[in-house]
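Give me the 3D structure for Large ribosomal subunit protein bL9.
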Amino acid sequence: MKVILTADVKSLGKKGEIVDVSDGYARNMLLPKKLGVEANAKNINDLKLQKANEDKVAKEILEQARALAADIAEKSITVSIKVGEGGKTFGSVSSKEIAEAAKAQINLELDKKKIQLPSPIRTLGVTMVPIKLHPKVTAELKVHVKEA
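Predicted structure for Large ribosomal subunit protein bL9 (148 residues):
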């Protein structure tokens, strides 16, 4: 019997896949537990429409991320840190501080986990900070680090 899985089933398949299982397994396990539905013409058509809708939504999210990346590339923020004698900095600028500065200065909510700093910024000047907005889109935010 062909069954469309409505949830991930270990050792059988992922949600949305059409699998061929024995009649007893489908009748006694998959269908009563709502892990799958019978793969008739109506259900297969519904699955195709659902996948098309998911693709459309994913495309819209990708376009929004690209637009946000273009907007971020034009903007910059300023963060200050303490500096001692000879230009030596005390402390560093972390992704949390960058996220807070972006919210305060350019009214942009950034998740600190999406800011991809290889290491905290410990020098004065301008640094380009990569921000992962989407698995396929990474924006660069210009961060000016100045003396406090």
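The mean pLDDT is 92. Let me know if you want a second pass.
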